Description:
Largest sheet: 10 strands, mixed
CATH topology: Rossmann fold
Helix content: 25-40%
Radius of gyration: 18 Å
Strand order of the largest sheet: 1-2-3-4-6-5-7-8-11-12
Structural class: alpha/beta
Low-confidence stretches: 4-43, 55-63
CATH architecture: 3-Layer(aba) Sandwich
Mean pLDDT: 77
Strand content: 25-35%
Number of domains: 1
Number of strands: 12
Amino acid sequence: MQPAAEKESADDHDSTGDVAGRRWHLRGLLPGRRPGPGPGRSRRTRRASWPGGRGEDRRLRHAGLRGAPCLGQREYPIVLVISEVFGVHEYIRDSTRRFAKAGYYAIAPELFKREGGVAQLTNIQDILKIVLAQPRPQTLGDLKAAVDWAKTRPGVRADSVGVTGWCWGGSTTIQVAATNPDMKAAVAWYGPPARPYQGPSGAVTGFDVAKDIKIPFLFLLGSTDTNPRWPTGASSPKWSSRGTATWKSSSTTAPGHGFHADYRPSYNPVAAADAWKRCIDWFNQYLKG
């Protein structure tokens, strides 16, 4: 189900500045003006742009949403928020706000900007053609560039970075956790580990890189979700990270895939609330502890 397009608001505002000699542009959202469906919105969310992650294309700017906490602590860990295939729409915006409300500098990159974006597309097959064809080095490079940019922001803990994502973003979370040394903890929401990412030498799945994950990693799955198909026995992935855990909701309503996506029929509020608390507790333990 493709999320509805957002409307522009007179409450958006722009600002500019300089980071490490590069100009950046922010398009901000004032608190409470465009409410998302989830609870616990932060008091500040803004759009930002930063140089892309491809060495041969450093001038290309990539857009994203960042949420800055308005709490009493002085330094805030970073949470890299990875969207589903639909890009940074209102559900991802709202989730980013909620991470900021919980005391994190949350940043959600728009990873399909080079290809023209996916917000204007209504056919899921057209969206998947763009998303699944994206080279793995490009995806991981742009995510690293987003984190590198966030680490330059005032008031952040540059040495405390986590990553999370839903569905395709959950699969991508596995890839990031296995390859980016900045990561200290990860939470993957129902991300199929068998999803292939196109590398220079062929496709790379989550199973291929599982052995390289050395950080605390939490999987959040619906009790009836069959999309992330988990092998058992000798073929099961060998997760090397300390503190790795898998949680399946015990909700009596039997949540399936996409139970946290509150814009879809699959949304399960009981399971979503339970899993969100576990996600925040996980990050609090390993990023704030």
